[in-house]
Amino acid sequence: MQLRYQFRVYPTPGQQVELARAFGCARVVFNDGLRARQTAHEQGLPYVSDAEPSKRVITRAKAAPERAWLGEVSAVVLQQALADLNTAYRNFFASITGRRKGTKVAPPRFRSRKDNRQAIRFTRDSRFTVLDNGRLRLPKIGDLAVRWSRTLPSDPSSVTVIRDAAGRYFASFVVRATDEPLPPTDAEVGIDLGLTHFAVMSDGTKVAAPRFLRRAARRLKRLQQALSRKQRGSNRRGKAVVKVARAHARVADTRRDWQHKLSTTIIRENQAVYVEDLCVVGLGRTRLARSVHDAGWSSFVGMLECKAARYGRTFARVDRWLPSTRMCSDCGRINEQMALNVRSWVCPCGGHHDRDVNAAINIKAAGQADFNDRGARVGPGPVPGTAR
Questions:
Q1: What is the predicted pLDDT for the residue at 31?
Q2: 3-class SS string, 271-317
Q3: What's the pLDDT at 375?
Q4: What was the pLDDT predicted at 339?
Q5: What is the pLDDT of residue 380?
Q6: Confidence at residue 371, expressed as pLDDT on a 0 to 100 scale
Q7: 159: three-class secondary structure by DSSP
Q8: Cα torsion angle, 134, 136, 140, 142, sign
Q9: Interior/surface letters 265-300, b for 16+ CB within 10 angstroms, e for the rest
């Protein structure tokens, strides 16, 4: 199983200049390749193959005076920029033809030097090296200082250097994990995700929603107001933009760390984990959009799915149309619709239910079989490549 291990890197001012040059060259090659394909499409010419842009926008462009500076960066960086373009087109074609399921993928767009995130990728062909002193040696950039928080489980096949909106630099390594399954356990759990309580377990455990964005809203508001007062194009506005980006990055990092710890605990303590297949995109269009995005359900479920695959646990998603909230977990009776302010209810059979705990119990029951008498279906989804 391939995973990504990400570490913070600290380039010197000179190395930052070299990285900025590499970011710019990769962006230009990507845009030139995209422009060549769009021009061919507009003129009714055959589709430009994957090999043709490499000759046109890299090999021939380096010989031209107006693109001679492309030779100042590693050729692998330029080739990987075109590989990203080819992948984007393949995903787009697979989406419009129906071979790719899920949300429709838009065609590739031109990259801007003003994009908040810049990235370049080095493969083994570029001969990047992790030195004995812990530094990362990249061709035509130098030895970068890396803050290692853990050791890599195997030799990396590629490394991506990322600069985010807050001005931080990261090195993301692709490695093959060799984790052994955790000792088996008899415990199984169903999880009902919510806003008041982030997660309610079928055993009655409730995890309060941390609401990291809500807690940082006051500081974000002040920073955004300060940004709005700065003149566009000024240096002070650029500094204010970085301050806002750092505040948002702090919220995202805190949420990600908290979710990693919670998901690891759940996977270690349970042999099987069942969650409801929520439509987060649809919920993000309602009046609860801010709270939904603050919760980060999708990333949390992705962590559970990835770690279950890594450590030999069972993970499944229950059909989102299962009436888990208004179905009695004792007799199976489906009651009428309930308002959100109804937190507990009594079934005619005599069962007294907590709204969220009852839903978690029903999710667990539905997840223990592909088809059961309540009409719930379980289907595992794709395993994302994240690591913690």
A1: 96
A2: CEEEEECCCHHHHCCCCCHHHHHHHCHHHHHHHHHHHHHHCCCEEEE
A3: 43
A4: 81
A5: 36
A6: 36
A7: strand
A8: negative
A9: ebbeebbbbbbbbbebeebeeeeeeebbebbbbebb
Place of tokens 């088809």: 371
Within its chain, how far is the Cα of 109 from the centroid? 20
DSSP state of 69: G
pLDDT at 388: 52
The length of the chain, given as a count of residues: 388
Q: Identify the CA nearest to 359 among candidates 225, 192, 232.
A: 192
Considering the entire predicted model, what is its pTM?
Answer: 0.86
Question: How many whole angstroms from its chain centre is CA 338?
Answer: 34
Look at residue 343 in the predicted model and tell me its pLDDT.
Answer: 83
C-alpha span between 284 and 288 (Å, rounded): 7
What does the radius of gyration of the chain's CA atoms come to, in whole angstroms? Answer: 25
C-alpha–C-alpha distance, residues 158 and 34, integer Å: 24
Segments of the chain scoring below 50 in pLDDT: 371-386
Structure confidence at residue 296 (pLDDT): 92
Could you identify the residue written with the tokens 């969650």? 275
Instruction: Give me the helices (H) in 64-116, please.
Output: 75-97
Can 356 be counted among the known catalytic residues? yes
- Catalytic residue (one of 32, 294, 305, 356): 356
192 given a catalytic annotation = yes
Structure-token pair, residue 316: 């499944």
Distance between CA 65 and CA 44 in Å, rounded?
A: 30
Inter-residue contact 56 to 36 (CB < 8 Å): yes
Among the options 52, 188, 276, 373, which is catalytic? Answer: 276
Sign of CA dihedral 110, 113, 116, 119: positive
Catalytic residue among 32, 192, 294, 305: 192
Distance in angstroms (rounded) separating the CA atoms of residues 323 and 153 = 43
Strand partners, 191: 201, 275
User: Rounded distance, CA 159 to CA 126, Å?
Assistant: 10
